[in-house]
Predict the 3D structure of the following.
Amino acid sequence: MGTTSGRAVLDRLLAERPTFHYDQTQDWSLGAGPLEILVDRVRPGWRVLETGCGYTTVVLAAAGAELITVAPSPYEHEAIVAWCRDAGIPTENLHWEEATSETALPGRELGTLDLVLIDGAHAFPIPFIDWFYAGGALRPGGLLLVDDTQVPSPRLLRDFLDAEGARWRRVTEVDNCAVFERIGDAPLVGMDDWQGQSWAPVRQTPLERVVALSRRGRGVVRLRTRLRAALSATSPPHS
């Protein structure tokens, strides 16, 4: 029976590099930096939700978190639980949701969460779906981790959260994992719709809109003129 010390568990993971995922060739884990953040920050009894699974699942279980792991592969679940048992890590607080996050999260009662880790599917808009449903359950001061910010969709989510300074504060970013703290408990999307979001298209003044429309109109006129000239040049002469 092994130790359940968070630091010892992380050291063992990084030394052994087990492959939990279905292809059995990669660990797809967070970098050592974000994993150390989980070891340092998460406390026993914290309610945590993660999309995706892997080394984070092991570290969070070892920390004594009440963990909801949303990931569709039963193979990965079985491999992680087997490794935890071998390492002496209790798994009774690991609740596996065998589904994709976009189908599992909508309508699910999550209660109040202390930490959310978004590291499931990276295709647009799934990271935003994860954030919308799970991030909305975070307590004020709770942590949100967005992994793989080198990929377009997670990077876009990170940039959006950076702009939402009234609701989110970036704590750090390490190894392509951005860590945010939730500020307050205001709804993620306010009643004032997009106008109340800092991250929004550049607003044009009425004068700028008139100028843009006039330029667009001149462009259409020029295009029509060129088309007429081209048609005239290729049309056979009238007999």
About this structure: The CA atoms of residues 171 and 180 lie 5 Å apart. DSSP finds eight helices and seven strands in the chain. The first strand starts at residue 47 and ends at 51.
